[in-house]
Amino acid sequence: MPEVLIACDAATLAAGDSGYGLIRDAALVLDQGRIAWVGPRADLPSDYAAMPRHDLGGRLVTPALIDCHTHLVHAGNRATEFEMRLQGASYEEVARAGGGILSTVRATRAASPEGLVATALPFVDALIAEGVATIEIKSGYGLDRDTELRMLRAARQIAALRPIAVRTSFLGAHAIPPDYASRADAYIDEVCIPTLHSAHAEGLVDAVDGFCEGIAFSPDQIARVFEAARLCGLPVKLHAEQLSNLGGAALAAGFGALSADHLEYLDAAGVQAMAAAGTVAVILPGAFYTLRETQAPPIALLRAHGVRMAVASDMNPGSSPMASILLAMNMACTLFRLTPAEALAGVTRNAARALGLFDRGVIAAGLRADLAVWTCQHPAELSYRIGFNPLHQRIIGGEL
Q1: Is 72 exposed, middle or buried (0-12, 13-18, 19+ CB in 10 A)?
Q2: pLDDT by residue (tens digit) across 325-378?
Q3: CA count, 13 A, side-chain hemisphere, 150
Q4: Rounded CA gap, 163 and 156, in Å?
Q5: Which is it for strands 65-67 and 34-40: parallel, antiparallel or unpaired?
Q6: Please, which residues bridge with residue 62 across strands?
Q7: Contact by Cβ (8 Å): 100, 109
Q8: How far apart are CA 84 and CA 246, in angstroms?
C-alpha cells in the first residue's frame, strides 16, 4: 500500500531547474518503490487522503546521494606517499619512483577476493552513513586479467552485502604495469582489451574508463580502448586533463562519453566538445586538495556552455583518500566556487547522468524512491558544515 511521507521541505531538484526546486511543507507519496506524487501538502490529491502517513518531523528530504567516481576496491594504503608529497615530491615524481598507482597494484594483486571486499566495506559504510544510495566503483589496480576481474567481482558483491546500488567501470587503461614498461601499446592490445572482453562476457562491466595523461595513456591508445567498448555496446568515461591538456575530454566527447572527470587543465575546445555531446563534467576536489594543486577546473566556462557538473569523492588510496561525499560537496564550493545548489545537483541528478542513470537523482513522479532525510532546514546546510553529518535516515526503493 502506498505511504505518504510528510516533510517540512522537499528539495525536488526537478530536471532543468537551476536551483533546489524547494517545496515548503511538502508531501511525497511512495508506491511500490517509486514516487507516485510530490507537491505541497495542501495540494495532496483526495485519493491519497486516507493512506497511512509517516511524519518526518519537519525535516528536509532530498534525493539520495550518488557518488559517481570511486576507486574504493583496492588493497593497502599509500600513507608513505602522503609524507613524500608533504616533503615536496610531485604526483608525477612519486609515480615515476615506483609509487602511485603501481604501489596499489602490487598490493591489490596479492589480495584475496575476500580481502578486497573486507577492505572496501568500511568505505562503503561511511558513504551510506552520509545518505549515498548509488556508488560507482572502478577496477584499475590489477592491470592483469585475473586481478581486474577479481576487483570487478568484489564490486558486484558489495551490492549484495549492503543496501546500495553499485555501478562498475572497467579501468584497465589506468596505468602501465612494470612488465609492460615502455610498451603501452602492447599492454592495450595484449591485456587491456582482451580483459575488457572477458569482463563484459561475465556481465561485470557497466562502463569503460581510462586515464589519458602523460604518465598513463595517450589519446590514440585510449581511443583503441573506447573502440573496443563501442563494439561491446558499453558507454565510456575518462580521467582527462588532470595534470596536463592532452585533449582527452574532447576525445571522450567524440565517443559520446557519459563523463569526463578531473578537468583541471580543460580548455575551451574541450568544454565546447563536452557541451555538444552532453558529457557530464565530474569535479573531484578531493584529489585537487590532496595533491595541493593550484589550477582549478574552469567552472565558469563549464557554466557558460551549460555543461552539467557532477561532484564525487574520487575515493582512492593515493590522490583522494576521502570517503565523504558531504566533504566533497563542501570542497567543491570552497575550492572551486560551486554554489551549494550546484553541489547538491552534482551529487544527485548530475551524478546520475554521469552514470547513465535516468531513474534517480530527482524527486519526481515515476522515479525511484531513493531519498535522504536530513535534520536541517535548508539544502545549503549540506555543503556548509564541515565534519558534521545531519543525515536522519535513508529511504531506498521506498523502504524506510
Answers
A1: buried
A2: 999 999 999 999 999 999 999 999 999 999 999 999 999 999 999 999 999 989
A3: 20
A4: 12
A5: unpaired
A6: 372
A7: no
A8: 27
**pTM here?**
0.96
The answer to whether the beta carbons of residues 371 and 62 sit under 8 Å apart is yes
Q: How confident is the model at residue 8 (pLDDT cuts 50, 70, 90)?
A: low
From CA 144, how far away is CA 308, in angstroms rounded? 34
What is d(CA 113, CA 111) in angstroms, rounded to the nearest whole number? 7
Residue 176 pLDDT exceeds 70: yes
**What is the amino acid identity at position 209?**
D
Give mean pLDDT, residues 389-397.
96
pLDDT-derived band at 94 (thresholds 50, 70, 90) equals confident
Question: Long-range contacts: 292-299, Cβ < 8 Å, 24+?
Answer: 292/85, 293/264, 295/264, 295/265, 296/264, 296/335, 296/336, 297/262, 297/263, 297/264, 297/266, 297/336, 298/263, 298/266, 298/267, 298/268, 298/271, 299/336, 299/337, 299/338
24: which strand partners? 9
Amino acid at 11: A
